[in-house]
Amino acid sequence: MNARKRALLRLLKLAPSGLVWRFAQVYIAGDTLDDAARTMHSLAGEGCRSTLDVLGEDVTLESEVAAYVDHYSKALDRIAADRLPANISVKPTAMGLKFSPELAQRSFQTICQRAASHANFVRIDMEDSSTTDATLALYRWLRGQGIDNVGVVLQAYMRRTLQDAADVAAMGGSVRLCKGIYIEPRSVAYQDYWMVRDAFVSALRVLFEGGASRVGIATHDEWLVLQARMLIRQLRIDSERYEFQMLLGVDPELRRLIVSEGHPLRVYVPFGAGWHAYSMRRLLENPRFATHVVRNVLGLGR
Known about the structure:
The chain is α/β, with parallel strands linked by helices.
């Protein structure tokens, strides 16, 4: 599976941006904060919360970090002004994590303080395995500064995740648990479909039983939704301690079913100019769209 994904990614990189956008725009709210606000209002009308993400990662300049901090500050102000049931999700490499961990600390501290002024919350996103240690260190540093309106993400397919889940749960941390989407070697991440599913359920149990303050169950896999519901019932988990989470544009029917059953659900709402890298990952998750794009690149769709 890993080799196939690498081959597909190489072909997708040859695709014109316009073609990628044509198939990926369903996953993205738009270019502007106004676009994102309209999407979040619509989701709120369905009974869904939102997590707002200003798309962008792997910045290399301090000025770029400052721009993202400003974008997120304005996003938090807009969420408060519109009284939206929404928080934000921030990629550490957009805050300069790779070239200056200290800058990332200061930037997240600023954003968390702005969020706290609105009684809001910040999710530190998780990226590829090269940043896992630094991201978790950043999270621990923020908690050590007395910042508690912040949470982190764990990826179930990572071999290390069971231990990380136990560690974060012991801190009473807030965690979004997802399968994981970055292309990783077998030494780092499980490759087998069922192993990843089993790892997800095991990590979810560790988080619930270990005392995590809140768990975002981020999946579109209906089997995993069922397993999560069974765990919630078995362990008598209060609705304040969990929510299901889904991506914008992915299986809205399942989203409506989960909400109709009375479970809290949050939708990840990305927007902004840095949509291309995000779209590539989404296309890799969707074989039908990705294959269509590749066929066009190879001239087989004409």
